[in-house]
Amino acid sequence: MIEVPKVLEGSQLINAANVLGRLQRRSPACGLPGDFYRDAGIYDLELNLIFYKEWLFAAHTVELGKTGSYLTLQVGAYPILLTRDRDGRIHAFVNSCRHRGARVCQESHGVAPKLVCPYHQWTYELDGRLFAARQMGSTFDRSQFALKRIHCEIVAGYIFICVAPEPPDFTATRRQIEPYLLPHQLTEARVAFESTIVEEGNWKLLWENNRECYHCARNHPELSMTYPDRPTITSTAADQTVLAHWKGCEALGLPSEFQLSADGQVRTTRLPLVGSALSYTMSGRPAVRKPLSNAIAPRMNIGALLLFHYPSSWNHFLGDHAISFRVLPLGPTQTQLTTKWLVNRDAVEGVDYDVEELTRVWLATNEQDRHIVQENQIGMNTPVYEPGPYSEVMENGVRQFVDWYSTRMQERLVGENLTDVV
After folding, report:
1. CA–CA gap between residue 302 and residue 414 (Å, rounded)
2. In degrees to the nearest 10, what's the CA dihedral of 51, 57, 59, 61?
3. Contact at 8 Å (CB) between 245 and 274?
4. Would you call 335 exposed, middle or buried from its count of C-beta atoms within 10 A (0-12, 13-18, 19+)?
5. pLDDT by residue (tens digit) across 83-96?
6. pLDDT computed for residue 417 by the predictor
7. Quick check: helix, strand or coil at residue 297?
8. pLDDT at 421
9. pLDDT score recorded for residue 261
């Protein structure tokens, strides 16, 4: 596995002590101060204490469908490589050659019988073992230079990774999300369309915007056709309509009731769409003729299963398709959002679905949110920005996310033994 990152030291330690004190004193009724969304030092702490320590959603297993399939992504300073070997196993590595450090795989995805570094042609097996290194001398021991492994967990078609030397226990997360996901049969799906955009805003702004629909009616006309903006949809509460929907879906064998993990990191719930809508389309009719899952009857009104897993993913699962969103920070004020639409693997484009209809609502919504986040960031960049109070009616979800963030940061900062510099 990868080595332990350096502990906080020097000016970074002093900055960490300052951040800890401010988080301990913050009012939970309001948002975070502006520099939490723009300061490079705080961003650095977030990488080290959250993104380098938590389980992160990386990809879907169906994206590595063939022997030799590989996929790459970047988590802060870590280039990541996912592969499927000849035995069907999925592996995660640091995408850095053990010779001089070049990325072994430079494309976003592909298929190869072996992994060949383009710099000096060191060649690796799909399970990370070094296969060949030319002209290295008779004393060179290939067995000592396998690719560095990263922790990898697979659940119901989702691949999670963790770059920490000792990752958090994944058992509770698996226990919570697996029953919700399994009926949707995502291991039998395929990615019909993928979109990656760069948003000019801090990663937390993307999450805060996602965790409320206070802004939806005015800003998301396409989404509002099918996605309800009632306070109970994004909060931790439920109204009678939601309760009735849970009861109906649970009777059909679909786990649906609201669950929030003990630490606030994972949320699962199944919610009704607007009126008789069955999918995120302008008409509310399914975008895909073939149901996503053979376990769920066609035209069954199951609404949308919503899953979030801080800090990297939120997801929607419907009767005809599923949508995953992956959040990866690029800098203090820049974030990458990757969206993937999954359909039944036997669904034929142009026959069973039209890509434009399938993606219209969320492509429009993502672009609208991109503009919202950018404007939000510009306003927060002013030195005189002060956070106002949350709406007690509409922003419980935002408050829950910020509470999780604040708690997690404090737990990790306390672990850095900052008492001597406070």
Report:
1. 44
2. 130
3. no
4. buried
5. 999 999 999 999 99
6. 65
7. coil
8. 40
9. 97
CA–CA separation, 219 and 222 (whole Å): 9
Using DSSP's 3-state secondary structure scheme, residue 55 falls into coil
Q: Are strands 78-84 and 90-94 parallel, antiparallel or unpaired?
A: antiparallel
> DSSP per residue over 110-177, as a string?
EE-SSEE-TTT--EE-TTS-EEE-TT--TT--GGG-PPPB-EEEEETTEEEEE-SSSPPP-HHHHHHH
Per-residue model confidence (pLDDT) at position 13: 63
Dihedral sign computed on CA atoms, order 163, 167, 171, 176: negative
* Contact criterion met (CB below 8 Å) for 156 and 188: no
What is the chain's length? 422
CA distance 44 to 33: 17
pLDDT at residue number 4: 45
Cis peptide before 28 (omega within 30 of 0): no
CA 128/CA 168 separation, integer angstroms:
23
415 confidence band (pLDDT: 50, 70, 90) = confident
The CA distance from 114 to 98, in Å, is: 15
Look at residues 26, 33, 37 and name the one whose alpha carbon lies nearest to residue 386.
33
What are the beta bridge partners of residue 71? 82, 109
The tokens for 11 are 């000016």
Half-sphere exposure (Cβ direction) of 415: Cα atoms closer than 13 Å: 12
Rounded Cα–Cα distance for residues 225 and 117 (Å): 49
For 297-356, what is each residue's pLDDT tens digit? 877 899 999 999 999 999 999 999 999 999 999 999 999 999 999 999 999 999 999 999
Backbone region of residue 163 per phi and psi (left: phi > 0; alpha: psi in -120 to 50; beta: other values): alpha
pLDDT band at 36 (very low <50, low <70, confident <90, very high): very high
Mean pLDDT, rounded, of the chain: 93
For 193-258, the DSSP string reads: EEEEEEESS-HHHHHHHHT--TTHHHH-TTGGGTS---HHHHSS---HHHHHHHHHHHHTT---S-
- Residue 422 predicted with pLDDT over 50: no
Structure token pair of residue 28: 């939970």
- pLDDT > 90: percent of the chain: 88
The structure's pTM equals 0.94
Contacts 24+ apart (CB under 8 A), 218-221: 219/368, 219/369, 219/372, 220/364, 220/365, 220/368, 220/369
